[in-house]
Amino acid sequence: MGLFPYADRYPVNRELPTTGRPRAEILAQIEEMSAAEDAVAHEGKISGSIYSGDEAHYAFLNEVFGHYSHANVIQRDMYPSATRFEGEIIAMTAALMHAPQPCGVLTSGGTESLMNPLLVYREWGRERGITQPNLVLPSTAHPALHKGAHYFGIEVRVATVTDQFVADMDSVRSLVDENTVALAGSAGSYPHGLIDPIGELSDLAVERGINLHVDGCLGGFILCWGEELGAGVPVFDFRHPGVTSISADTHKYGFGLKGSSVLLYRTPELRRKQYFIMPDWEGGNYTSPGMSGSRSGGIIAAAWAAMVTLGREGYLAIAADIFRTAARLREIIGEHPELRVLGDPKFNVAFAASTAEALGDDPIDIFHVNDALAAKQWRMNGLQHPPAVHFCITRPNTLPGVMDRFAADLHEAVGYARERRGTQPRSGATYGAGGASIPREKVAAGISGWLDATQALPPA
Predict the structure, then answer these.
(1) Which residues lie below 8 Å from residue 400, measured CB to CB, with a gap of 6+?
(2) DSSP symbol at 115
(3) Burial of 177 by CB count in 10 Å (0-12 exposed, 13-18 middle, 19+ buried)?
(4) 247 or 440: whose pLDDT is higher?
(5) What is the secondary structure of 49-86 as a DSSP string?
(6) Per-domain residue ranges for the chain?
(7) Cα(161)–Cα(142) distance, rounded to whole angstroms?
(8) Distance in angstroms (rounded) separating the CA atoms of residues 120 and 242
(9) Of 29, 209, 299, 315, which has the highest C-beta tally within 10 A?
(10) How far apart are CA 25 and CA 396, in angstroms?
């Protein structure tokens, strides 16, 4: 689509306009673009990304946001309501995760919620004389953990996964040494929606006297209902004594607006290591609970409003629909011997091509399947190691008829892939790109140039 996807429709701003444009004109453009871009989501054809899809819910949250869109909650004396909202969000989430006490912070999203605890665990290690800290995690852990380790000077040790695509405990144990400050596991993992053996990771953390972060950014606010709904979800929260922190995104299955996440700690002592305090600055005694300084009061208010307007009954009803739809999706995939579901997913279903041994025939290329689905506007997420795609079930996917349409289109997509054995598919596995993935030959050549290109505009 290039850097100017609407250049044929609207003026391109290569510099600040001399004269401002009318608000009505700007709003008309915004409404046209957003309506077109949301159309496929309303059909339930998007994996993940659009977690609620309820326009009345969005309108309500936008109204809440509007009351605080101008508010910077760093000024707590001006906006004490933000302290109320933040405290109650943390308390409600802590109760869902069975925390021993409500202790946590709000962040701007999953990446910050995964990076902050690594700073805490680095500082925890320094207090114990660890100058070369390391973090042990499975290969399926989110890249934001690697990013945080890169920023904070922590060595990452990557454990293998089992044939069920969860952390291999023998591999994890072999990587732990006297410099290990923390372990990490997912509930559930972004690639496959699977829950690592958190109980065994907890036992190891307790045995070695180290920390354990559970990444529930994607799955925390959906998997927490699984036990009550009988969905076969194992315990992954603070009920395991070795779990010292959990992240869960309110802007995903918490159904808040984008830009909010919750990071919980087992103790205030751990959380305190995240704080930055500069008491002798000329501008005054400066304190900050995390990486962000200025923060939007609107985002915090909207996250609180989403939680209290839905309540337990609302979340449970949505979760039941999502678990039911994911189970139906697994059945649909299982109707095709050419395909296999990876692991035992509950809400985010990854599937790959069956192996030649299992199929007794030449395997298909899963990205041909993705190409055919994308042609019908299904937006799956491409994966690698092994090549696969996943369909992360959200509320729009639970609408009547969506899975029936997917079943018919998947049947055609498998036939399309069967006919194109030995040819190069268009799509590949690039995070956040869906069916429009960068072709694999370009990925192999490196994507740094592509990233550079997205950050600067070409000349007129």
Answers:
(1) none
(2) H
(3) exposed
(4) 247
(5) S-S---HHHHHHHHHHHHHHTT-BTT-TTT-HHHHHHH
(6) 66-307
(7) 14
(8) 16
(9) 299
(10) 31
b/e map 422-457, b = 16+ CB within 10 Å: eeebebbbbeeebbebbebeeeeeeeeeeeeeeeee
Name which of 51, 37, 43 is nearest 409 in CA terms: 43
CB contact at 8 A, 201 and 231: no
Whether residue 409 has pLDDT greater than 50: yes
* DSSP-H helix ranges across 335-401: 356-359, 366-375
Q: Per-residue pLDDT for 454 more than 70?
A: no
Write the CATH number of the domain with boundaries 66-307.
3.40.640.10
Cβ neighbourhood burial of 57 (10 Å; 0-12, 13-18, 19+) = middle
C-alpha torsion sign, points 94, 96, 97, 100: positive
Q: Quick check: 106 and 91 in contact, CB under 8 A?
A: no
CA dist., res. 299 & res. 283, Å (int): 27
Tokens of 224: 């927490």
Q: Report helix, strand or coil for 339.
A: strand
For the stretch 388-406, pLDDT in tens is 999 999 999 999 999 999 9
Distance CA 6, CA 285 (A): 47
* pLDDT, tens digit, 9 for 90 and up, residues 369-392: 999 999 999 999 999 999 999 999
Q: What is the dihedral of CA 342, 345, 348, 352, to 10 degrees?
A: 10
pTM of the full structure: 0.91
**pLDDT of residue 444 exceeding 50:** no
Q: Using CB atoms within 10 A of its CB, is residue 235 exposed (0-12), middle (13-18) or buried (19+)?
A: middle
Q: Are 303 and 106 in contact (CB under 8 A)?
A: yes
Residue pair 365/417 in contact (Cβ under 8 Å)? The answer is yes
The residue written with tokens 């996440």 in the block is: 261
Tokens, residue 407: 């079943």
Q: What are phi and psi of 323, to 5 degrees?
A: -60, -40
As given in the structure block, the two tokens for residue 213 are: 């972060």
Answer whether 262's CB lies under 8 Å from 250's CB: yes
Lowest mean pLDDT among 47-51, 245-249, 402-406, 431-435: 431-435
Q: Report pLDDT for 443.
A: 47
* Alpha carbons 196 and 303: distance in angstroms, whole number: 27
Structure tokens at 320: 């039941």
